[in-house]
Amino acid sequence: MKAQNFLKTVAVALSGVALAGLSAKASTITAQSGDLLLGFYSINTSTGSPSQTDVLTIDLGQASQFYNATPGSTFTLSGVTLADLSGIYGSSWFTSTSNLLSWGVVGVAGSATSDGHAKAGTVWSTVASGTGSRAATTKTSLNTAISYIQTLQNHISGVTSTANSSTAFDDSTGSSGNYYSEDTVQSGVSFGNLSPLVDNTNTNVVSGVEYSDLWEQQPGTNPTAKGTASLLGTFALSNSGVLTFTAAPEPSTVTLAIAAGLAMLASRRRRLA
Fold first, then answer.
1. CA 185 from chain center: how many Å?
2. pLDDT at site 191
3. SS3 per-residue string spanning 170-210
4. What's the first-to-final CA gap in the chain, in angstroms?
5. What residues contact residue 210 under an 8 Å CB cut-off, 6+ apart?
6. CA-to-CA distance for 90 and 106, rounded, in angstroms?
7. What is the pairing mode between strands 55-62 and 35-44?
8. DSSP one-letter string for the chain
9. Phi, psi for 17 (deg, rounded to 5)
């Protein structure tokens, strides 16, 4: 009898440890200025309608880790888990043709960064690789996108994370202010005026990986002056739920690679002539 009671006690204790482990990562998310926010939602291909009730938003942390990354380096980002993706969107979350999973990354610098790199009003956003780029624009134009991004930032600040990730929020209520509602406020643009669209919708999968480029747009010195736009690197989302970032190589490296390619092409043409 004592042995049975002992075993029951052990079983209860172990179950408590298991439950504690499941909830150990659940915490309060505090999104702040300069954080990059990754958002997911699905699109029903038969109706063409996005779903506002299955939104997953993840705080990737400060943008400085991306613009200060060593050129050409690759690192894996925490926060994205296969358990969240498959739990919300099903086991075919990456391959489904009836419900395309749409995802993108946005962020804004509400004040000048402490490292002196990004000005107040800088916007970071993705473009699906191969579909276009971000252009330099004015402070007035960027302000439109900033208002939507800051609404999203405020929406997820103070919410409880999922049990799988301390920085992921399962926003299944469909409430206003979430990633979907701020992203799709107008037809043809994201977050008020970002074009090309921020989101990737499984249209450029290469060997089980989707790629989206991260762009930085800094404002000009006055509301009507154009600022700058630059490519920071590329996100890669794999079908195993792993998100990585590869920083763009130094401009000089790109220039040398292009020059080498042109030289090889010219040499080949001379041989064929």
1. 18
2. 96
3. EECCCCCCCHHHHHCCCCCCECCCECCCCCECCCCCECCEE
4. 96
5. 103, 128, 200, 202, 204, 236, 237
6. 25
7. antiparallel
8. -HHHHHHHHHHHHHHHHHHHHHHTT--B----TTEEEEEEEEEETTTTEE-SSSEEEEEEEETHHHHTSPTT-EEEPSS--HHHHHHHH-TTTTT-SSEEEEEEEEEE-SS--TTS-SPTT-EEEEEETTS--PPP-BHHHHHHHHHHHHHHHHHHTTPBPPSS-TTEEEETT--TTSHHHHHTSSTTSBTTTBSS-S-B-SSS-BTTEEEEEEEEEE--SSTTSB-EEEEEEEEEEETTS-EEEEEPPPHHHHHHHHHHHHHHHHHHHHHH-
9. -65, -40
| 25, two tokens | 């990562």
CA angle 28, 34, 204 (to 5 degrees): 95
207, 94 in Cβ contact below 8 A?
no
- pLDDT digits 0-9 by tens, 46-81: 776 666 668 999 999 999 999 999 999 999 999 999
- Find the angle CA(191)-CA(193)-CA(195) to the nearest 5 degrees: 100
Inter-CA distances, 152 with 58, 129, 176, 208, Å: 11, 24, 9, 29
- pLDDT tens column, 119-148: 999 999 999 999 999 999 999 999 999 999
The better pLDDT of the pair 258, 212 is held by 212
Q: Which residue has the higher pLDDT, 33 or 259?
A: 33
The letter for the amino acid at 54 is D
Spell out the domain ranges in the chain.
29-272
